[in-house]
């Protein structure tokens, strides 16, 4: 974790003094800085996953990426098969990621996080995709749940949860989806009613990522059922999994992402104190709307990186595989398909990087986040299908990365708001 923090400190400090250097040291720009200014696009490199490419990053980011890549490839990837068999990652791997500083990367250090930027968060997520790792669901924990505490939590709430979440000792989840309310969050039925100074929560949630191992769930509940608009009567609550009345249902058997623990959650007269309210009462819907763009962008970040990983794995396969007395990659139809895929991925990468840069500066709008999510996840499914086809019968075998990628890509267009809803938001 010390290495990560040192890398990130260098990233942060270099950002803070960047403008000063530009004005005061124009004539003394080093050759290294000149080289940074002309970083190649990843499509210009040997592979699209090469470190040292893409203009939104610098050498400090590269150092951090090397650290993350070693862990993802050497430590996490070999565990994926076991996680798939059990339907969940281990507590030990969560804590190992915490020890290495890979959780809460963009959460400010002053509240208990690592203190990096969204770019650093994106690097961790990209390297998971590059290593073909889908478990544990790190992005839900770090990039989606923790920001709610950062932005809306009291100091007491932050002190209680964030350091433990950064250490991997407290696994986070968010309870939005219900059996009758998916993308339409205003349709939720889970309720929270006042009882003296406490709240009583009743209802259920479904398809909750990290649900089986969760220690802390951000629960979305109705607190003002008679509100003129449903959006005006929703609040968020921090609910510990050991609270009486909080029950975890079965681990759900999914088409893909089999190593992630996805569960049903039930709340039967769950009593929580006033201090469990996250943010303002009846302002939960607006808090969700403020945080959903980051959730949608990180899905797009994962998808774009997954496209690149699938392409590189497939290109290597067709270069080695022989048919009709020559390598499959020598067939013109295969060459054309690879050209189409690489071009599509390159275009997607340019937009995702633009969105990442904007979000890192606090300037990304909800419409662009929706574009990033819908476009990248649609492309991910197309790339998965085309790459599986190029693998032939071998691609249909579950033991291959491409088969798992094909299955896991399918949900990307569904969660975080369906792509149909994304188009409504864009329009």
Side by side, the strands of the main sheet go: 1-4-5-8
Our count of helices gives 14
Q: Got a strand count?
A: 10
Portion in helices: 40-55%
Mean pLDDT: 92
Quote the beta fraction: 5-15%
CA(first)-CA(last) distance: 43 Å
Radius of gyration: 22 Å
Low-confidence stretches: 13-30
The main β sheet shows up as:
4 strands, mixed
- How would you sum up the global shape? globular
Order of helices and strands: HHHHHHHHHEEEEEEEEHEEHHHH
* Secondary-structure content class: alpha+beta
Overview of this protein structure:
50% of the residues lie in helices and 14% in strands. The chain is globular, with a radius of gyration of 22 Å. The strands form 3 sheets. Strands 1-4-5-8 form a 4-stranded mixed beta sheet, with helices on one face. A 4-stranded antiparallel beta sheet has the order 2-3-7-6, with no helix packed on it. A two-stranded antiparallel ribbon has the order 9-10. The two termini are 43 Å apart. The chain has helices at 2-16, 18-24, 31-37, 59-76, 80-86, 91-99, 118-130, 138-152, 155-166, 284-320, 332-360, 366-391, 401-409, 419-426, and strands spanning 172-175, 191-195, 198-209, 216-222, 234-240, 246-251, 262-273, 277-278, 322-323, 326-327. With 427 residues, the protein is of the alpha+beta class. A hairpin with a 2-residue loop joins strand 2 and strand 3 (198-209).
